[in-house]
Design brief:
Heat Shock Protein 90, five-stranded antiparallel sheet, binds magnesium ion, single chain, 34% helix, binds adenosine-5'-diphosphate, alpha+beta, 4 helices, 145 residues
Length: 145
């Protein structure tokens, strides 16, 4: 049973990295997540939002769309979407240590982190159209507030 949903549209600005991760932390708080779960979700969301800003839009303006839902038994699902440049070689982009932006001192570990900190990661992308990152995490069942 779905207990809450959220739809958020944010301009692709770096101040919204911190905002998005705090909003998402607040969103899962009613399920009383552990510190570890909170940290994992915040880090994964940060990585995806940062990617949308720096890779998706670069110096262009645009919006990031965040859709999330939470079920009573602790399944947290989130989609982070941009309408930026998209990814032409997805398997390469997903591989650990690959970055198309070494000049920005990127580590190339964003997708790897998302994959490790969440229970599933699915990336959908079309060059010229944008990118959608879908992640799911099963939170430990706890009493609802
Ligand atoms: N939202 C996005 N839009 C366009 N390209 C992306 C997006 N997210 C990731 N990428 C591509 O995938 C690569 C790997 O991403 P990631 O693992 O987060 O490493 P990093 O951000 O350190 O480069 C990026 O370098 C970029 O080429
Ligand atoms: Mg990244």
């Amino acid at each position: 049973m779905i207990i809450n949903k959220m739809m958020l549209k944010l301009p692709a600005l770096s101040i919204n990295e911190a905002f998005a991760r705090s909003v998402v932390a607040a969103f899962i708080l009613p399920l009383d997540p552990t510190m570890q779960e909170l940290a994992d979700v915040k880090t994964a969301v940060s990585e995806a939002v940062t990617n949308a800003i720096i890779h998706g839009y670069g110096d262009c303006e645009g919006f990031i769309f965040i859709n999330a839902q939470l079920t009573r038994d602790g399944i947290f699902e989130i989609e982070i979407e941009d309408s930026g440049v998209g990814i032409s070689d997805l398997p390469l982009a997903l591989s650990p240590m690959y970055t198309s932006a070494p000049e920005l001192e990127r580590s190339g570990m964003g997708f790897t982190i998302m994959e490790q900190f969440m229970d599933s990661l699915v990336v959908d992308s079309k060059p010229g159209a944008g990118t959608k990152v879908r992640m799911v995490k099963k939170l430990q069942p706890r009493n609802l507030h």
